[in-house]
Every structure is written in structure tokens, then in C-alpha cells.
Amino acid sequence: MRRRGFGRLSATAVLGGVLCLLVGALGCGLQPTGEQLQALLGEVFGADAFPDPDATLIRIINETDADMELTLAIDDQLVIYECPEDTPICDFPQEECPESIRAISERRHDSTTGAFVGGRDFIGTDPQFNLGPSDFECGNVIIFRFFGGQAEVLVL
């Protein structure tokens, strides 16, 4: 899978622009159609932004100053995805379309020493980190974004 390297600032600016388009009703701009959004994401993240309409893509946006591990329960199977500090966008295509994706924990480690520098447990927290069949469908991109001590999940 092809990846493009973006600096943290440009990745933040790009994601901000995409989010602005998604919430066009708030005055940021016009809200695009699904095809326009797919074309925009393709321009920003590469042609494989929506790689397979018959599969789900998990994308981690790492805007922290550390290597990170995200533990998810995908259809009740624990999976750990790693996203290094120097790769702000990490893609993990799923071989099959899952029915549920639950965030379990996030851990950050210093990229030089490997020392633990922070993290969070998602169990029992905001329900937005527990995605079920009504929250996404096959072909969606599930984005877990980590920035400034915060975390969010977006479904595109």
C-alpha cells in the first residue's frame, strides 16, 4: 500500500480542511457529495484513501511526539496496531468486513529510548470509541486520530 509522508503540521492542516468540508453546514464551506469527498481524500492521502469498497480500512493518525500502539477489539479479537512517530498516517486494511470495532487502549513510547511516555484506556469511557454495525459499514474508513493529548474517532 502506498503511503505519503506528511509532516505533523501539514497532516493537521489537511485533516482540518477535510473536517471543515464534512461540517460545511457550520460555515466552513460547501458540504461535498460522497464522490467529491472520496476524490478529495484521494488527492490528500493518495488514490488508495478508499482502497476497497468491500473492505474496511482502519487509519491511525499519529500527531503525538511518540511511537504509538493502539489496541482494538475487532469482532472481539484483540489486535495491536503500531504507528511510529515518523509515520503520521498508518493504514490497516481489514481482510473481512468487521461488525464491531472497540478501542481498548492507546500506549505511547519514546521513539529513541522506547520508554513509556503516556497512554489511555478506552474501556468504560466515551461510547464513540465502541463502534457497532449501525456506526459503520463495509467500505468505510475508520480514523483514530491522536493529537495534543486528545483522541477522536471518525467514520468516513
Structure notes:
With 156 residues, the chain is of the alpha+beta class. It has a domain at 51-155: Immunoglobulin-like, CATH 2.60.40. Helix content is 17%, strand content 37%. It is built from 2 helices and 9 strands. The chain has helices spanning 8-22, 34-45, and strands at residues 57-63, 67-74, 77-83, 89-93, 101-109, 116-121, 130-131, 141-147, 150-155. The strands form 2 sheets. Strands 2, 3, 5, 6 and 7 form a 5-stranded antiparallel β-sheet that branches. It has a 4-stranded mixed β-sheet with strand order 4-1-8-9, covered by helices on one side. Strand 5 and strand 6 (116-121) form a beta hairpin. Helix 1 runs antiparallel to helix 2 (34-45). Residues 1-15 and 18-31 have low confidence and may be disordered.
Radius of gyration: 15 Å
* Mean pLDDT metric: 78
Q: Largest sheet, described in full? A: 5 strands, antiparallel
Q: Low-confidence spans: pLDDT under 50, at least 5 residues?
A: 1-15, 18-31
Number of helices: 2
Describe what is shown at a glance.
This protein is an alpha+beta fold and 156 residues long.
Characteristic terms for this protein:
alpha+beta, Immunoglobulin-like, single chain, globular, 9 strands, disordered N terminus
